[in-house]
Specification:
This protein is an alpha/beta fold and about 250 residues long. The protein has seven helices and eleven strands. The strands form three sheets. It has a seven-stranded mixed beta sheet with strand order 5-4-1-6-10-7-11, sandwiched between helices. A two-stranded antiparallel ribbon has the order 2-3. Strands 8-9 form a two-stranded antiparallel ribbon.
Length: about 250
């Protein structure tokens, strides 16, 4: 089946409260750059992508009203629902998946991309590559190469220098066949597991191998003040590129 024939959805997680964004008066996903919130910058990429059929936003409960205002003001046509997050990131993602299930996403070939609401520098090419990878292999993780040497240490002592060429930084989106990821989230809950750091970790625990898609180096997660200024720098750079191509 060609990718153009697949139903692809996105669950965008914006459930954090921004405890690491010191001094911020609002959750990090609602911080603005250029008159637009970080979460809106993120949603834009999925709203505009021709292969994405719909989006579910998982939001911190205290920000639900503000999230609705953002969606209404932007006139997003693909945002199907906004649902509250859970106690953990895993629970929040499950809430988003459950909403897709409620909305009737049950086809065995349906794809879901799970993305961080505070990764606003994702691009169309990476989204397309993830969808293509899931259609071929079933699971995929967006990654980035490590620019630094990686070591393993114990009690402050270097135990091993890891081969950097075999190491990747896990990023987002992470993509899956919807029925597979939903079933394994249910399985984890039945086993009392709510502590998986992300869905790739959950799927790997249950034996699913994921293929990788190399994403752009600037696909950062905005969690600290430094990240926010880096985000601003990348946006400024891209605007300058349009004016004066390098």
């Amino acid at each position: 089946m060609a990718c153009n024939d697949l139903k692809c959805y996105a669950v965008i997680f914006a459930g954090g409260v921004g405890s690491r964004m010191r001094g911020a008066k609002v959750p990090k996903q609602f911080l603005e750059l250029g008159g637009k919130s970080i979460i809106a910058h993120t949603i834009d990429h999925f709203e505009k992508h021709p292969m994405v059929a719909g989006v579910v936003v998982v939001c911190v409960a205290s920000g639900m009203d503000h999230m609705r205002e953002i969606v209404e003001d932007a006139h997003y046509s693909k945002v199907l629902s906004i649902v509250p997050g859970g106690k953990t990131g895993q629970d929040s993602i499950f809430n988003g998946l459950s909403e897709l299930k409620r909305l009737g996403v049950t086809d065995k070939d349906s794809i879901v991309l799970i993305h961080d609401g505070v990764r606003p520098l994702i691009d169309e090419q990476t989204i397309s590559a993830c969808i293509d990878s899931v259609s071929q292999y079933g699971s995929t993780a967006t990654v980035a190469s490590s620019p630094e040497t990686i070591i393993e240490e114990e009690n402050g002592v270097v135990e091993r220098v890891v081969d950097r060429s075999r190491c990747k930084l896990a990023r987002a989106p992470q993509g899956f066949k919807f029925n597979d990821i939903y079933a394994e989230h249910l399985r984890a809950r039945k086993e009392g597991r709510h502590d998986f750091i992300d869905s790739i970790s959950l799927m790997a625990h249950y034996g699913h191998k994921a293929h990788t898609v190399e994403g752009p180096a600037d696909n950062i997660k905005v969690t600290t003040q430094r990240d926010f200024f880096a985000f601003k720098g990348f946006v400024d750079y891209k605007e300058m590129e349009q004016l004066w191509p390098l």
